[in-house]
Amino acid sequence: MIKTLKALIFLSVLSLITGLFSCHDMKKKADLIIYNAKIYTPDSVAAGVNCIAVKNGKILQLGSDAEIRSRYWAPENINASGTFVYPGFTDAHSHFTGFALGLRYADLSVATSFNDVLEILKVYRKQHPNGWIVGRGWDQNKWDEKIFPDNRQLNTLFPGVPVVLSRVDGHAVLASEAAIKAAGLVFPGKSNEAVLHNGEFTGIFLEGMTDKLRNAIPLPSVNEITDLMTEATRLCHEAGLTAVTDAGLNKSEILLLDSLQKAGKISLRIDAWMNPNEENYAYFMKDTVYHTPFLRVGAIKIYADGALGSRGACLLSPYADDAPNQGILVTSSAELSAICLQAYKKGFQINTHAIGDSAIRMVLHAYSNFLKPEDDRRWRIEHAQVVNENDFKLFAQYHIIPSVQATHATSDMEWAGNRLGPDRVKNAYAYNRLLQQNGWLPNGTDFPIESIEPLKTFYAAVARKNPSGNPPDGYMKENALSRSDALKSITCWAAKASFTENERGSIEVGKDADFTILNTNIMVTPEDKLLKTKILYTIVNGKTVYKAKK
Ligand SMILES: [Zn+2]
Questions:
Q1: How far is the CA of 317 from the centre of ligand 1 (A)?
Q2: How far is the centre of ligand 1, averaged over its atoms, from the C-alpha of 93 (Å)?
C-alpha cells in the first residue's frame, strides 16, 4: 500500500515536472511566430518552409510548422491561413518627407481641367481660411486643353493670397502674384525657367525657380510635422511598404527623420539621400556612412535635368512637339564631376536624376571617368527614361545602376510619343533592356508623383498597363519585367541599391523581420486580378505595423 502510494506520488511529481517542461520551458522563446504560410524568398517559394520565428526584430529560424513550433513559442502568433509572405516591399525612389508635408496641401491630381483646379481650391480655402494656399499634383496632360495654365484667375479669386501650385512632377509651379511677391521674386525676364504665353509671363516657373517658391511657403509647427510624418508612415504601411527612400534632403530634415524614428513615430526604414550642399557634406560625409537600423545616409542626390512632362528633360535633339526646345541641363558635367570626386574618395553613392538622353549621356560619361571595372560603388541614374541607342552599353560597362519607376511608363505613355517622336520613344522606359545591361535594377514610384502603392509598381512592371488595364496588349511590352524580376526590384534589388542587402530584402535567417503578407500569390495570379490583391499584414522589425480589417 505504502509502496503504491509512493509510486503514485512519484508519478504525479514526474508528470508535474514533465508537464511544466513540455509547454514553454522545453521550448525557446521567440517574439513572433508566423505559421501556416507560403513563404516567398525572392527566388522561389521556399520548399518545406511555412513558418518563421522572429526574435529581437530579426528572423530567428525558418522551417516547417512542426519543426518551428516544437522548438519555439512566442507571445504573438500569426496564423497566415495559407496566405503569402514576401520580404517587406521597398520603394527604391521616393520622397517621403515631401509626401508627408504634402498631405496638408490641396490634392489637384484629380482635376480634369484648370476649372476643376479652381473649384478644388475654393473648397480647400473654406477649410483652410488663413495663410497660403498650396496645392500639388496638377497635370495639364490630363486636361481637355493640354496647355500650361496662367495665374490670372488665381489673382482674381484669391486677391492678395499667396497661391503656389506644383505640377505633378514638381518641376513646374504656378504661382499667384502675391506668392511671387512674398517669395521675393521678380519676373525673371526672358529665361528658360519661366513660361511665357504670347510674350506675357504666365506665373509658371520651372526647375530651380520652383524651389525658391516652395522654400518661401511657411513651415508647419513641429507638432504638425510630427503628425504628418506619422500619418505618412501609416499610409506607407497600409500600402505594404516597410522601407522607402527620401531622395534629396537637407541636414535638418535628415536629423528630424532620425529623431522621429528613434522616438518610434516613424516605423519605416529610410534611405535618406543628401542634397548636394556643404552643410550636409560637413555633417554626414565622415569616415563612415551614418547608419542606424532604420536610417542610412550614404548617398548624394543630384539633378542633371528636368522632367519630360514639362519639357525640361534634356534631349540630344529638340522635342518633337516643341522644336527647337531641347530641355534644360541643371547641373553641368564639371559640377557633377566635382561632387563625384568627393564621393568617390569618401566612399559615398551618387544618385543622379537624369531623364533625357543628353542628360543621361552626360552622367554616364561623368561617372565613367571615376568608376573602375572592379568597383562596387553602385552609382545610380534615377529614372533613366530616354537612353540613346549607343549609351545602353555604358550601364553594363561601368556597373551603373538604372533606377526605374515602372508606373512612370504607364502614366506618361499618352504623351511620351508626342514629346519624343516615333523613333526616340522606342528607347524610352526601356526597363527590361536596362535590366539586361546591369543584371539587376531597383524599382520605385517617385511618390508623391505617383501613387505610393508597390503593387501598382509590380503590376505596371509586368503588365505595362495603367490601373484601368490599358493598353490591352501592354505599352511597349518587350520592356516588361518578369514577375520574378519585378518582385526582386521591390525587395532584394531595392535593398542592394541602398547597400542594405545584408540586412533586408529577402527572407533569410539573421535578416530583418520585415514582411508584407498578401492574400494572393502575385507570382501566378492572373494579370487582371493583380491590383485586387489585399495587403493582410505589414510587419517591420518583427512588429505588426498594419493589419487589414476583416
Ligand atoms: Zn524623385
A1: 24
A2: 6
**What's the 382 CA to ligand 1 centre distance in angstroms?**
8
What does the pLDDT look like over 325-382, one tens digit per residue? 999 999 999 999 999 999 999 999 999 999 999 999 999 999 999 998 888 999 999 9
User: Residues near 80 by Cβ (< 8 Å), separated by ≥ 6?
Assistant: 34, 35, 36, 37, 38, 517, 536
Q: How far is the CA of 94 from the centre of ligand 1 (A)?
A: 6
Rg (CA), the chain: 26
Gap from CA of 407 to ligand 1 centroid (Å)? 13
Q: What is the pLDDT of residues 208-221, one digit of tens each?
A: 889 889 889 998 88
Domains of the chain, first to last? 2-82 (2.30.40), 90-95+220-546 (3.20.20.140), 105-216 (3.10.310.70)
Contact between 89 and 242 (Cβ < 8 Å): yes
Work out the burial of residue 181: count CB atoms within 10 Å of its CB; fewer than 13 is exposed, 13-18 middle, 19 or more buried: middle
Q: How far is the CA of 22 from the centre of ligand 1 (A)?
A: 55
- Taking the centre of ligand 1 as the mean of its atom positions, its distance from the CA of residue 84, in whole angstroms, is 31
Closest by CA position to 164, among listed 209, 130, 119, 132: 132
Query: Distance, CA 95 to ligand 1 centroid (Å)?
Result: 6
